[in-house]
Amino acid sequence: MTIGNLRDSLWYLAIIFGWLTIVWLWGAWYAGRRFQALLKAPLTEEAEHLTHVWERRVTRWMRIGLSMSALSILCLVSSLITR
Predict the structure, then answer these.
(1) Quick count: other Cβ atoms within 10 Å of Cβ 70?
(2) Can you give the pLDDT of all 83 residues of the chain as single tens digits?
(3) What's the whole-model pTM score?
(4) How far apart are CA 30 and CA 58, in angstroms?
(5) Listed residue (64, 62, 41) closest to 51, CA to CA
(6) 10 and 68 Cβ atoms separated by less than 8 Å
(7) Residue 62 CB neighbours (<10 A)
């Protein structure tokens, strides 16, 4: 693998991880909206269960989105260093 191929691969990975960041953070935003809506719903056993489910999804998707963002930045910086 030559340096040119490595640079191009890192650039493409940075773009892919950037788009995945947008997808995961949008999912976290949506999960947050669902969580807030469930907090306003009348308290039932099912609503309580779903509240816990959506609360976990918010934190999980936010962590994944921020990790993808860090990977995108890392790949971008690595691509610029190899130039």
Answers:
(1) 12
(2) 677 788 999 999 999 999 999 999 999 999 999 999 999 988 889 989 999 999 999 999 999 999 999 999 999 999 999 87
(3) 0.83
(4) 8
(5) 41
(6) no
(7) 17
